[in-house]
């Protein structure tokens, strides 16, 4: 029975060692890769914001300036596996489509402000843009949202790489049309999930020049005026470090129209970020997945290998050392066991007689025999004379 338990322990130990050695190169590598068919939705909300509201009225197309309003942005990201497969890069790269709709609450109703759409090719492990598969961005508006043009992306677009480091990365900004450094700040707990907080500070920069109604700057002015679109932003992202997924995002946007001699007009001004439902859902899902990836990439190997080695050692002792000890005991019994010996009769070696024993001195006997008759006759005659 002891030998059986020993071999069972060896088998279990070998299994644990194998799983431990394969945890990182096999299981981790299979999980640490983004899916081709990604589907996510995030909702961001900003309070007390200033925005422009283009819409149709009885007098035609107009642009209203809204201040102190609530703005909501809904972003959907959907992977399109067929595009990556068409280019033959589905093993290493993915093609994700991102669409966003911004709305403002006006007189208790939600009205559409803007629409954007883009298609981005990314590396499935690093998250960096690769531009492999026909990247594009929308150029249309709410009336013609399908208008697009070719685009070139760079840096990180949707997520950070797996196993995020506490360093500076390049994060894509659609308004700039290029990547800009985003720096690690500190660690922070978000709904029970440990995150790395990164911040990207984009200084004021002119990103476009547009013809806009002069009435935006001063009521009563007619015609259009050329205005520069200034853009600045402080973007803060809370990232789950094992998966690289953004758990929480927030932007302090300062996008304004400016022209000579007039006060800036808010195009999009204010702070907007993920709502609590989006943050909670992200933390619950990606916090758990991040813990699993962190375990596979880090201590799981030792958690499995060390007990496996101990089991193998114990099993070898039970299976082989126990057998040796049993064998030694058997041999010892055989060595100490003596067969009964039959009783042997007493036997003494013959002793060679000495010379005196072989040839004894018979002188006295001779004289006794010679004198015996005479003595006997003398005795008899004495007895007769009496």
Structure description:
- By secondary structure, this protein is α+β, with helices and mostly antiparallel strands.
- The protein has a domain of 123 residues.
- Helices cover 32% and strands 39% of the residues.
- It has six helices and twelve strands.
- The chain has a twelve-stranded antiparallel beta sheet.
- Strand 10 and strand 11 form a beta hairpin.
- Helix 1 packs antiparallel against helix 4.
- The longest helix has 37 residues.
- The chain starts with a helix and ends with a helix.
- The C terminus is likely disordered.
Concise structural overview:
This protein is of the alpha+beta class and 386 residues long. It is built from six helices and twelve strands.
């Amino acid at each position: 029975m002891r030998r059986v338990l020993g071999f069972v322990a060896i088998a279990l130990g070998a299994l644990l060692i194998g799983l431990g050695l394969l945890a990182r190169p096999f299981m981790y590598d299979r999980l640490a890769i983004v899916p081709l068919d990604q589907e996510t939705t995030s909702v961001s909300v900003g309070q007390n914001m200033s925005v422009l509201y283009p819409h149709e009225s009885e007098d035609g197309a107009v642009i209203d300036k809204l201040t102190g309003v609530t703005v909501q942005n809904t972003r959907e990201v959907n992977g399109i596996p067929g595009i990556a497969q068409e280019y033959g890069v589905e093993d290493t790269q993915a093609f994700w489509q991102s669409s966003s709709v911004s709305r403002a609450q006006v007189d208790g109703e939600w009205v559409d402000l803007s629409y954007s759409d883009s298609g981005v090719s990314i590396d499935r492990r690093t998250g960096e843009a690769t531009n492999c598969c026909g990247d594009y961005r929308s150029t249309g508006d709410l009336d013609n949202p399908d208008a697009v043009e070719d685009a070139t992306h760079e840096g990180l677009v949707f997520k950070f790489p797996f196993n995020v480091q506490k360093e500076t990365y390049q994060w894509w900004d659609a308004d700039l049309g290029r990547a800009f450094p985003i720096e690690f700040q500190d660690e922070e707990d978000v709904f029970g999930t440990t995150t790395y907080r990164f911040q990207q500070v984009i200084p004021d920069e002119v990103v476009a020049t547009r013809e806009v109604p002069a009435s935006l700057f001063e009521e009563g002015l007619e015609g259009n005026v050329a205005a520069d679109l200034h853009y600045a932003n402080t973007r803060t992202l809370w990232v789950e470090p094992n998966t690289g997924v953004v758990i929480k995002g927030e932007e302090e946007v300062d996008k304004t129209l400016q022209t000579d001699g007039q006060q800036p007009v808010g195009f999009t001004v204010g702070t907007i970020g993920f709502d609590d439902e989006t943050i909670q859902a992200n933390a619950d899902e990606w916090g758990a997945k991040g813990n699993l990836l962190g375990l596979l990439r880090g201590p799981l190997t030792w958690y499995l290998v060390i007990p496996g080695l101990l089991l193998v050692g114990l099993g070898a002792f039970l299976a082989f050392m126990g057998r040796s000890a049993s064998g030694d005991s058997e041999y010892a019994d055989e060595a100490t066991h003596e067969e009964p010996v039959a009783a042997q009769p007493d036997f003494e070696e013959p002793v060679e007689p000495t010379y005196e024993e072989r040839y004894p001195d018979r002188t006295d006997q001779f004289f006794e025999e010679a004198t015996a008759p005479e003595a006997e006759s003398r005795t008899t005659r004495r007895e007769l004379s009496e």
